[in-house]
Structure prediction request, 231 residues.
Amino acid sequence: MISENLDIVENNIKIACEKAGRKREEVTLISVSKTKPVSMIEEAYEWGSRDYGENKVQEITEKYDQLPKDINWHLIGHLQRNKVKYIVDKVKMIHSVDSLRLAEQIELECVKRDVEVDILIEVNVANEDTKFGLKMENVLTEIESIAKLPHVHIKGLMTIAPYTDNAETNREYFRQLKQLSVDINDKNIDNVSMSCLSMGMTGDYQVAIEEGATLVRVGTGIFGERDYGNK
Ligand SMILES: *Cc1c(COP(=O)(O)O)cnc(C)c1O
Prediction:
């Protein structure tokens, strides 16, 4: 079932790339495995998926120990400063940096471990009260400060678009995030690249790809509905 779902998602990604005149290699599919057991990740791994997204530090560290080391782990959920120490040397990328204070903590833990880490700046593109992330108008100033941290490398922007039944309603938000990344790229800030754009989930990844996403985060479309139960 998981490999069939992955076939479907993969095919949709191909179609979206073609439609947008982009190469398939420009887009990385991140399988969002939060709440899902290691056995399901092993199935996706068999299929060929090497990038996984988790939103809890503890879940990454547990799964990290049990799964092959060539997996790229992406932290996509809100990160508390006191948990940074558990993951800086385990993740490929932290997608959810939304303050200088958090970035400074990441810098500190990187220095201790003699590692460097790639991050994305999370943007609350629709200005939703319920979401983390910087407001559009504050992104540039925050990036200029974070860029001074030598072990933390900004690779682009990330957003969680509003929940919707109609992906088209998020097209404008994806477009705005892409434009912001182009504007920031034009500033040529040292230690800042805008090569990554993490946007699009199960409900809207095709539209996100048409608007320039380089990382799409698909959970339900691969692993099925999540059961948060009474955990
Ligand atoms: C859970 C989650 C996803 C995946 O959502 P689906 O709708 O299941 O594809 C993507 N991004 C973030 C940040 C998430 O927390």
